[in-house]
Design goal:
The structure is a homodimer of 304-residue chains.
Chain A: E1 6-8, E2 13-18, H1 25-36, E3 47-52, H2 55-60, E4 73-74, E5 77-78, H3 85-99, E6 104-108, E7 117-121, H4 129-139, E8 146-150, E9 167-171, H5 182-203, E10 211-223, E11 234-236, E12 253-257, E13 262-264, E14 272-274, E15 286-298, E16 301-303
Parallel strand pairs in A: 1-16, 2-3, 2-6, 6-9, 7-8, 8-10
Antiparallel strand pairs in A: 4-5, 7-9, 10-15, 11-12, 12-13, 14-15
Chain lengths: 304, 304
């Protein structure tokens, strides 16, 4: 049976931000480029707002100064406390989003892992049917794979996208932090501009039809093996390196110890790893995250 | 005509250090591993000394705290001045090397560039015939390419290896800073252990025969293109990405501007680029370095 069409308000204020993590250069350079070339991101039916989120971290080319800014938010609130620099700017960013009535937020990231182009949903953003429809249309607009990763069920916690409540983190990799890769730069630019086109069409009255969206859901993190003193004893096995999204079966290599021994996946269940060898996970001894895939049926959406 | 044999004292104290740059994890984890497993680096005829050079930078997983430690030295002296943290530890490292009579120093690095395994010579180290002979023998010991890059003529300046005066920086890439790659880890381990074997053989009386050594010599740095305000306007072109050591001819792509235009190599002369897209060069707007290759005839060396 066909689903009824959901009527939703057009979007009025779209934010495109970079530099939530100061060493992820693709988004930083893109936002700077668009600030000097606004025609690329200007559309008739809504206003586009450009911002760099953590200037001191950008200047130092580090992920953060005191705390991970992308772990400071939850459910439209700043939840991090203390005197850290990022707690201060988290409040300013919340204020900026409220003042500008941002109703769709694209936050640009990149990763050292071989994730490819990836749309990340924080818990609130995963509940918006319009948001899911925009992502589904975006996925179909390119001939390279674009995956969707949802933190709706369980969250690493605190994403900046929680404030606007609608939108996504655009992640792309592999690229070392502190560097640029021309192909990923171009891809990130094309995907972001296409989102703006899709929103423009929706605002102009084009209906987003009933369809299905394949979504990876975050399940848990996998830590590196440790010895009795809590010291990490191994690294990602060469066989697993770059194999994000490829199911791992019992007996497949996961880690290589610093002495050269291979550690296998010993669980009976298949696991799907991603963010393998993401640099920022190292400080938490996280080797990769484990996801599972599911398909979500999307209700048609039209502007009211 | 055969060259006369140079008689050189055996080596007594070999230093293997990591963490000169705190975000280059391969050397850091290897040195830690060997500190707990000293048998891998212990040889009969000399003492092996293990050290991590910049602990606070390692703890923060950043290249340096105040200054690049590997630009603080010259000609057996600490030349950097000021109150920066690295200036302080540069003096301590110089003292440590002197106190332990280090006569051969291997400093472990890694890079985001696709350099492969690379032996780096600072000006003083490039003058030691024993050193060049050890490098030549090392190159022949593996079935993967190991290149030699000399800063003898012109220097980026200040390498830590200037103090011991003999030895080399072992560079390996590509690997994002703040991460490990199992294959590069193993390669770095094998090459370092092989150096110790070669020194052991030399100390036991094995002559290092007359031979030739292919050396790349540093020529100059290539900056990213900039606009009239001094802002970088481009990134490494996808065609050049990962093509370290591959000669670039007139008309080959070098850069892609943030607007998507290709910038070609317009010079008539062929250039050989390396350290393409090394993350730490970004703060200086350096895109890559340009080298040329030459062949050095090596005199036979035997211990006296």
């Amino acid at each position: 049976m066909a689903q009824s069409t959901l009527k939703t308000k057009p979007l009025s204020n779209v934010a495109i931000t970079g530099g939530t993590h100061g060493n992820e250069l693709v988004g930083i350079r893109l936002v700077r480029h668009w600030k000097s070339n606004t025609s690329h991101v200007t559309r008739q039916s809504f206003k586009t707002h450009l911002a760099l989120n953590n200037i001191p971290a950008i200047e130092k080319c580090v992920r953060y100064i005191d705390n991970d800014l992308n772990r400071c938010f939850s459910n439209k609130e700043v939840v991090a406390t203390g005197n850290g620099y990022e707690v201060k700017i988290a409040h300013e960013i919340k204020e900026w989003i409220a003042t500008n009535n941002i109703d769709f937020h694209v936050d640009l990231h990149n990763t050292t892992a071989n994730t490819g182009a990836l749309l990340i949903l924080t818990p609130t953003a995963a509940q918006s049917m319009l948001n899911l429809q925009i992502l589904a249309k975006l996925r179909c607009s390119f001939n390279f794979p674009i995956r969707v990763l949802s933190f709706a069920g369980k969250s690493l916690g605190g994403g900046i996208l929680e404030i606007a409540g609608c939108g996504f983190g655009f992640e792309n990799g592999p690229v070392p932090h502190g560097t640029l890769k021309a192909d990923l730069f171009k891809q990130t630019s094309n995907v972001t501009c296409k989102v703006l086109d899709i929103i423009e069409e929706f605002n102009q009255g084009v209906q987003l039809d009933e369809q299905e969206l394949e979504v990876y859901e975050f399940e848990r993190v996998m830590f590196f093996p440790k010895d009795g003193n809590g010291n990490v004893t191994a690294m990602i096995h060469g066989h697993l390196e770059g194999k994000d999204w490829v199911p791992v079966q019992k007996g497949d290599p996961l880690f290589m110890t610093f002495s050269g021994e291979t550690i296998l996946h010993e669980g009976d269940e298949e696991i799907i790893p991603t963010f393998i060898n993401e640099a920022s996970y190292m400080e938490k001894d996280v080797a990769f995250i484990i996801v599972h895939n599911t398909t979500v049926k999307l209700q048609p959406v039209q502007k009211c």
